[in-house]
Task: structure prediction
Amino acid sequence: MRADFLNVELQQIKDAGLYRQLRRVDGDQGPTLMLDGREVINFSSNNYLGLANHPALAAAAKAAIDRYGSGSGASRLISGNMTLHEELEAKLAQFKNSEAALVFNSGFQANIGLLATLAGEGDAILSDSLNHASIIDGCRLSKAKTLVYAHCDLNELEACLKRAATARRRLIVTETIFSMDGDEAPLREIVELAEKYDAMVMVDEAHGTGVFGANGAGVVAKLGLASRVLIQMGTLGKALGGFGAYVAGSRALCDLLINRCRSFIFTTSLPPAVMAMALAAIDIVQSEPQRRDALRHNCQKLKHGLSQLGYELGQSESPILPLIVGDAGRCMALSAALLIRGVFAQGIRPPTVPVGTSRLRITSMATHSEAQIECALAAFRDVRGEE
Ligand SMILES: Cc1ncc(COP(=O)(O)O)c(C=O)c1O
Result:
C-alpha cells in the first residue's frame, strides 16, 4: 500500500502552522535545562516542586531496583502485582483521605479506562469544555452520551444535569486545576449540583496534587470534599516528579476497576523503581510544606512582574500562567523570541487548546531562583509588543 498520505497530511499540518517537532533535553529536569544543546531557564515543566531531579527519589529508585529488580514482568492480575504497588496504594489512600487507591500506568490510561468503566450506553457524562484530551477520549470510548458544558459554567452544568435526568447514571467530570489555563474549577458548587441531581463526581487532580491543600493532597483536600467526590484521579508524573497515575476512592470503586477497567487490566504494571519514587515523593510532599511556599512565592513574583509589564494572564492562582496570544504563528514566534533570550516558555496551539487561543503556558517551579525569575522578566520586557 502506498503511504503518500503521510506526507500529504504532514504538509496540511505545516500549512496550518501547527507542525510540531520534538526538542531534546540533555541532563536532568531542573529549573534550567540543556535544551537542544543550549542552557535555558525552564518555564515549561510540570515539575512544580522540583522533585523530578530530587536525590531522594533517585536513591529510592536505585534501592528498589537492587531489591526487586528492574521490571514487573506482567500485568497486575497475572504476576505483576508487587509489594510496592500495594504499599503505594495504601499510602495514596492515606494521602487522599480515601478508603482505597489504585495505581495506573499513566494519567491518560487512567482517564480513558475510568470513564469507559463507569459510564456506558444509557448514561450521561457531563464534561467541562476545557477538560484534557484523555478525558475527551474517555468520554468517546465510554459510549455514554456526553454533554459538554461551557468552561466552569455552573448554569450550563445545571441545564445539562436537567437534560440528563432520564439517563441511567450521571457522571460529572472536571479537572480541578485546568492544565492549560491554570484556573480552578468551582468544585464545591459542582459537588452541590451533583448531590441535587443525583450525579457522581470525578475529578482530575493532575495539576492540583502536590500543589494545593495543607499537606499537598490537592484541591479536594483543600476544600474538605474527599467524602463527597466519588473518584479522585491524579498523576505521579507532575508535581510528584515521577511517572504513573492513581485513582483514589472507595474499595468497591477500586475492585470494580480491577475487574473491568481495560487500561488497568491489559497492560504490564509499573516497575518497582517507579513505585519507590512515588513513595519517596509523597513523603517529601507531606513533610516539606516549604516547597509549596517557595512555589507560591515564585508564582506570585512572576505573575506580578508580568502584569507590571502589561501582560494579561487570566484567572490563574496556580503555577500555570496562560499568556494568550491567539494566533498560532505569532504564539510560536513569541516563544522563539524568548528562547533566543534563554527563556523556555512553550507555545501551545490547537488542538491542545481551542482555535484562536494559542498561548504561552508559563509554569513556575519551587526551585526557580530569584535571579532566574528576574532574568525571565527581563526577556519578557524585551519581547513586549511582539505578542
Ligand atoms: C489534566 C491532565 N490529565 C491527565 C493527564 C495525563 O497524565 P499522564 O501524563 O500521566 O498520562 C495530563 C497530562 O498530560 C493532564 O494535564
User: Anything to note?
Assistant: The chain is about 45% helix and 15% strand.
